[in-house]
Design brief:
Layout: E1 10-14, E2 25-32, E3 44-45, H1 50-55, H2 60-66, E4 76-80, E5 89-97, H3 106-119, E6 125-129, H4 138-154, E7 175-179, H5 186-210, H6 218-231, E8 235-239, H7 241-246, H8 250-256, E9 264-270, E10 278-283, E11 285-289, H9 309-324, E12 329-339, E13 351-353, E14 359-361, H10 369-381, E15 387-392, H11 396-402, E16 407-411, H12 413-426, E17 430-432, H13 437-441, E18 450-451, H14 462-471, E19 479-484, E20 490-491, E21 502-503, H15 508-521
Parallel strand pairs: 1-7, 2-5, 2-6, 6-7, 10-12, 10-15, 11-12, 14-18, 15-19, 16-17
Antiparallel strand pairs: 2-3, 4-5, 8-9, 9-12, 13-14, 16-19, 20-21
Helix pairs in contact: 3-4, 4-5, 5-9, 8-10, 9-15, 12-15
Length: 522
């Protein structure tokens, strides 16, 4: 059984008066305004809603206030128009306080748009009359991009495996038009096309992460990646357990030996003409993580189906760049294994010979991600890329240190800062973390070249231990970044902003933005 593919709404531009549009609903923005001494004040309509306000004879804000609207960011208020405008439903979405610039911040727009479109499930066609920056610089493009991305991601809903549709469940919005001054403008249409490609990559990542682990084991996951990548025109190579053995991939084999579904390594290559910068992308693909002999607690273990979120993101990014065509050569290395408990599973105390030739003493079989990533990093460095970027649900320490929203980034200082900037640009925040020398000292082994985790430190600085371990396998002269997405990659609560319940698709948009930066600036 292949993973269900989620269809996102079609995105288009329109320049018709929103009061005259023949759609199921029109979305406008409202700002909150503080009154005297911080008391709630009157609502302020955001730009884009002028003709609709006129149609309501200036009574729109008062009516919305009577319905409870406050203008708080992401708040959704619905109003039946009763023929006042062509669309039967008007939706006001809160954008927070009135911005000092021409438009709200892009991520405010992205999250608000997603909330509005999600609330309109059951409608087919929706128009967005939201405030967009008319700046000639990048900010104008970023606000349009944010609205388009929010509309698509807000409509995401994993297809799942239900035999019968849930009673009363409404279908997501199927078509969204964004109102702009000129619907034929080439740059605006390019932004909408880009948003469609990138959000499709996010949706594909979410689909894979949300799939149950019994239906997405290493061989089938590798086959699905190979199929979509081949269709996109990428060069594809899949190493099975025999090829991994011949290639000396001891880390991947050690982790995968406990499962009947044997490990794989997928290599995807995108090589545009005249590209002068080379990048290696690596994503952790543990399709399920029991912890192995160092078994995890039963509570919450089901979420470990998401331990392949890094691999899903990297594979989806490769498919996206095959269509976006940035001028940078990118090769992805995706190690895939299932960390299971059996008579063949690797054990604490084992010494594993890695692809690089280094020997690792295993202390905790639940620190398996770094084992498969180290082999992939070694293989990638053999091609001497200019940059190496790896992402993984590596450590619970990331959640302890930075929470569920902010990813940790470690590695070369310059690339870590560029990664942080890319995340800020798209609303996927990261925070640079150190790689202290004392942690490396605590990873000295009596019998091998390095310990897999720090001796005697238990979980202290566990996120940093992962980064220090991976650094050992990065070749000298290669700028690298490790993005720990253990928290942000999976959202167990109800949908919020542009995040759906389950897989979030983090850090797909960060990686695409970072590759754009590397293509433009080397």
């Amino acid at each position: 059984m292949t993973t269900p593919t989620t269809a996102l709404p079609s995105l288009s531009l329109a320049d018709t008066d929103p009061a005259d549009l023949t759609v199921d609903a029109v979305v406008i923005g409202v700002h909150s305004q503080e009154g005297a001494e911080g008391a709630a004040g009157e609502l302020l309509l955001a730009s884009g809603a002028e003709s609709i306000a006129a149609a309501f004879d200036g009574k729109l804000t008062a009516t919305l206030a009577l319905l409870g609207a406050t203008g708080g960011a992401g708040e959704v208020t619905k109003l039946a128009t009763l023929g006042t405008i062509t669309a039967p439903v008007l939706v006001a979405v809160g954008l927070g306080g009135e911005p000092s610039g021409a438009a709200p911040a892009p991520d405010t727009l992205r999250r608000a748009t997603a909330a509005a479109v999600r609330a309109l499930a059951g409608a087919q066609q929706v128009a967005l009359a939201l405030p967009l920056s008319d700046d000639a610089d990048d900010n104008g493009a970023l606000t349009l991009r944010a609205v388009a991305e929010g509309a698509a991601l807000g409509a995401y809903r994993f297809a799942g495996y239900k035999g019968k549709p849930a009673v009363g469940r409404k279908n997501p919005v199927s078509a969204v038009s964004v109102l702009v001054p000129d619907a034929k403008e080439a740059s605006a249409n390019a932004e909408v096309k880009r948003a469609s490609v990138v959000t499709a990559a996010v949706a594909r990542t979410r689909d894979w992460v949300n799939a149950p682990a019994n239906l997405l084991r290493p061989p089938s996951f590798a086959d699905e990646i190979a199929a979509v990548a081949g269709k996109a025109g990428l060069d594809v190579e899949v190493l099975d357990e025999k090829a991994l053995t011949e290639g000396g991939f001891g880390g991947i084999l050690a982790v995968g030996m406990g499962s009947a579904a044997k490990p794989r390594l997928v290599k995807l290559t995108y090589t545009p003409a005249q590209a002068t910068t080379t990048v290696a992308l690596i994503g952790k693909g543990i399709t399920f993580d029991t912890g192995g002999v160092s078994i995890k607690p039963a509570q919450g273990m089901w979420e470990m189906k998401s331990d392949m979120a890094g691999a899903a993101a990297v594979a989806s990014v490769m498919v996206a760049i095959a269509e976006l065509k940035p001028s940078v050569a990118v090769t992805a290395y995706i190690p895939i294994a299932e960390n299971m408990l059996s008579g063949d599973a690797y054990r604490p105390g084992d010494v594993v010979t890695m692809r690089s030739g280094k020997r690792v003493e295993v202390l905790n079989t639940d620190a398996e991600g770094r084992m498969i990533l180290a082999d992939a990093i070694s293989l990638a460095c053999e091609a001497q890329p200019d940059y190496l970027i790896e992402t993984s649900t590596l450590t619970g320490g990331q959640v302890i240190a930075l929470g569920k929203r902010i990813a940790g980034v470690m590695g070369s200082d310059a690339l870590a800062q560029r990664t942080k900037a890319a995340g800020e640009l798209v609303g996927e925040p990261t925070w640079p973390m150190p790689l202290p020398d004392e942690i490396r000292k605590s990873m000295e082994s009596d019998v091998a070249d390095i310990l897999q985790v720090s001796a005697g430190m238990e979980r202290a600085g566990h996120m940093l231990q992962g980064g220090v371990f991976l650094r050992e396998f990065v070749a000298e002269g290669v700028q690298w970044a490790h993005i720990d997405i253990a928290g942000p990659s999976f959202h167990s609560g109800e949908a919020t902003g542009h995040w759906s319940k389950g897989g979030t698709g983090v850090p797909v948009r960060t990686l695409v933005a970072l590759l754009d930066d590397l293509a433009a600036n080397g």
